[in-house]
Design brief:
The structure holds two protein chains of two kinds.
Chain A (H helix, E strand, L loop, with lengths): L1 H40 L7 H13 L4 E6 L5 E4 L5 H6 L11 E7 L2 E11 L5 E9 L1 H48 L20 H48 L4 H32 L8 E3 L1 H11 L1 H6 L3 E5 L5 E3 L1 H18 L5 E10 L2 E8 L33 H11 L3 E6 L4 E8 L11
Parallel strand pairs in A: 7-9
Antiparallel strand pairs in A: 1-2, 1-5, 3-4, 4-5, 6-8, 9-10, 10-12, 11-12
Helix pairs in contact in A: 1-2, 1-4, 5-6, 6-10, 7-9, 9-10
Chain B lengths: L1 E5 L3 H13 L3 E5 L2 H10 L4 E5 L7 H10 L5 E6 L4 H10 L3 E4 L4 H15 L7 E4 L2 E4 L4 E4 L2 E3 L3 H12 L5 E2 H9 L8 H14 L8 E4 L3 E4 L4 H4 L2
Parallel strand pairs in B: 1-2, 1-3, 3-4, 4-5
Antiparallel strand pairs in B: 6-7, 7-8, 8-9, 10-12, 11-12
Classes of the chains: A alpha+beta, B alpha/beta.
Chain lengths: 455, 231
């Protein structure tokens, strides 16, 4: 592109010089013609031919390489410089009919280029004369040609330098990008933790590297969740499937009574129930992990909901002589009734499971501030070590002190609670001391903008 | 009662047919959507059990077409997809019930029976009985062998539910939903505790036992002994 522009520039320069040189020559030739015309206007052919020729010679003396041809009536040559046959040369001129106007043109004659101007005037005796003046342009044209050639050499040099410069620039600009590409091409599922160092690229690309690193981190998190999920589900399913396989194989090893077969089938049925429950729960959590839990919002009266839950858990709590108490009130929240019921149910059943016989579980509703409400589910019992508290909501998190051990669907209840609360843009934390263990939920008011992955 | 099962999974279809025939229904089985739709349009069924994911026409489409042809046959959709949107879609298109795979056969049977009961004008009985147990609904009184039994409100509702569905296996989730209005996966251990209490009151000191545990499925109230149940 640059080379083309430079070539265009050299062409324009050449043409400008040619134009300028022609216009200068025309000015010179016109001034010569003017002088000759002046001489001719006083010219009397009878007396002054010699004087005229003297004067013309004087006019021509200050001009270089000028040729003149003055023709009178009947093609009678009044004056003609040596050398160029101007008559023949001017024949090549595209003469107009109107001979009174000066007209000019470039003529190539005898391997040389001439600029010719011719004019027709009337002498003092009304005799018409055709004055043709020519100037040899060879030297000027040669100069212009040399200049043009010089420009072309310069141009070639410039193009070469541009090419070299551009290649070098591209190489050095591309080098960090190439290194980046090399690094990126090495990233696979096993190396998602690898970060691309910012030092690898110039400062202007640092934000690109940051953005890329952040994207990799996000992908790593998703990938990690998927892996954890797969590992969890495989681990959870292994036990029931092992039981199913073993029991069935053993049953088939020998002939059994109908009663024994029935026992195997019942036992299998129980394992299948477990599997089914695991799949349902894990899918729910997978949806939550991938932000696909979309609550169907409606008004929820938490007082009514907790009373209904107390009602449901009445027998179980009575069995352990545990009291369920609801304190305080709070405004209605917007949420998905089924989901919130499930979360509340999980929390209560978890609390009942870990409360010593004869104690009291207290649920406290309150308004935290104009924009949010707080629910505390508190139960006395064995305190949970601080290090376990944040991990209580992890899937299948199990320690001896963990509150998530029960015979069925162990280790997933609190994870589901957390998913539901977060899908409602709320938050849940756990506290524990010698007095009680408390699950504290905060819901924004109103819950108008629940996270929607489609937004 | 004549049922149509539309299910492309051969094994599932066959087991459903066997189970339903053994439960006293006449069953037709269609292995693809087109055949199922054709039969549903041309024959009279009391109820259709329809898989959503069929290879040719989807179950959604079949429900839609049947309803737009003014076929009012009751439809239970079976699907592996349990999202709320799918359930809502199913009901919007005109399905009467929606079961997520894997479901228990007992649950399917309970749904079928409760839907078919909708077709029969219900005689609102004031007195429900099973063996020597009597429930007087207007008086809210339960007696067995003439002895009055005091029940809590929930125990009363629970027993009423069992008496109305005598002989049917009721799953824990069905009981939780009907008696406590818990329509989600709740801690079903609660149901076991409630049943134990009810048994203590109505079965402990009496024969025959009325409430039976059906392992891996749920409970049922029946006037037969455990041994007779499987003969």
């Amino acid at each position: 592109m640059a080379c083309l522009l430079l070539y265009g520039l050299s062409y324009i320069i050449k043409k400008s010089f040619e134009k300028y040189s022609i216009s200068q020559n025309i000015i010179e030739l016109n001034s010569v013609i003017d002088s000759i015309e002046r001489e001719l206007s006083y010219y009397d052919p009878e007396q002054e031919r010699n004087e005229l020729i003297q004067n013309i010679l004087l006019i021509l003396a200050s001009h270089h390489q000028l040729f003149v041809n003055i023709i009178g009536n009947d093609n009678n040559i009044l004056y003609k410089t040596r050398g160029l046959n101007l008559y023949l040369a001017s024949q090549k001129l595209d003469n107009n009919d109107v001979k009174t106007d000066r007209h000019s043109g470039v003529v190539n004659y005898d391997n040389s280029s001439y600029l010719i101007v011719s004019s027709r005037i009337y002498a003092a005796n009304n005799e018409p004369f055709t004055i043709t003046v020519a100037i040899k342009q060879d030297m000027q044209l040669e100069f212009i040609e040399r200049l043009h050639n010089g420009l072309l050499i310069l141009l070639a040099l410039a193009c070469f330098l541009i090419l070299i410069g551009t290649s070098v620039t591209i190489y050095f600009t591309q080098k960090p990008i190439n290194q980046l590409i090399k690094k990126i091409s090495l990233i696979d599922s096993k190396s998602l933790k690898v970060k691309i160092p910012r030092e690898l690229v110039p400062i202007k690309y640092a934000s690109l590297v940051d953005a890329f690193n952040e994207m990799i981190s996000r992908m790593d998190a998703v990938f990690q969740r998927q892996q954890d999920f797969t590992a969890d589900i495989a681990h959870e399913m292994r036990t029931p499937i092992t039981n199913l396989t073993t029991q069935t194989q053993i049953a088939l090893n020998n002939a059994r009574t109908a009663e024994e077969y029935k026992e195997v089938l019942y036992s299998n049925l129980e394992e299948f129930e477990k599997l089914s429950q695991i799949i349902t729960d894990m899918l729910f959590l997978a949806q939550a992990d991938n932000k696909l839990l979309i609550p169907k919002l409606g008004k929820i009266d938490l007082t009514e909901m907790f009373n209904r839950m107390f009602d449901y858990y009445e027998y179980v709590s009575e069995d352990k002589r545990i009291k369920l108490i609801l304190k305080g009130t709070c405004p209605d929240i917007l949420g998905d009734k089924l989901m919130i019921s499930r979360a509340v149910s999980n929390l209560l059943s978890n609390a009942i499971r870990h409360t010593p016989v004869g104690e009291t579980i207290t649920v406290t509703l309150s308004r935290l501030n104009p924009n949010s409400i707080k629910i505390i589910v508190a139960n006395p019992g064995q305190p949970i070590e601080a290090k376990h508290l944040p991990l209580l909501f992890d899937r299948f998190y199990r320690t001896d002190e963990s509150r998530q051990r029960n015979g069925e669907g162990a280790g997933i209840g609190l994870a589901i609670v957390k998913s539901i609360i977060e899908a409602h843009q709320g938050e849940i934390t756990a506290e524990s001391d010698d007095n009680s263990t408390r699950f504290i939920m905060i819901f924004p008011l109103p819950l108008s903008k629940v996270k929607n992955p489609h937004n | 009662m004549k049922l149509l099962v539309v299910e492309d999974e051969v094994k599932t279809g066959e087991y459903l047919r066997q189970g339903l025939i053994e439960s006293g229904f006449i069953v037709d089985l269609a292995n693809n959507g087109l055949d199922g739709y054709h039969r549903a349009m041309t024959e009279d069924y009391d109820l259709i059990i329809l898989d959503v994911m069929l290879p040719d026409i989807s179950g959604w489409k079949i429900v839609q077409s049947l309803r737009s042809s003014d076929k009012t046959t009751q439809i239970i959709l079976l699907t592996a997809r349990g999202s709320v949107e799918d359930k809502v879609k199913g009901f919007d298109l005109g399905a009467d019930a929606y079961l997520v795979k894997p479901f228990s056969f007992a649950e399917l049977l309970a749904r079928i029976r409760s839907l078919l009961r909708r077709n029969v004008p219900q005689v609102n009985l004031n007195i429900l009985t099973a063996a020597d147990l009597t429930m007087d609904l207007p008086k809210r009184m339960v007696t067995r062998s003439g002895k009055r039994i005091d029940l809590t409100n929930k125990e009363f509702l629970l027993l009423e539910y069992f008496l109305r569905y005598q002989g049917e296996v009721l799953t824990r989730s069905l009981i939780a939903s009907q008696v406590w209005d818990m329509n989600f996966d709740s801690d079903t251990n609660v149901i076991d505790v409630a049943i134990r209490r009810l048994r203590n009151k109505i079965d402990a000191n009496f024969e025959p036992k009325l409430i039976h545990t059906i392992r891996g499925m749920g409970y049922k109230l029946d006037v037969v002994t455990e041994e007779e149940m499987f003969l």
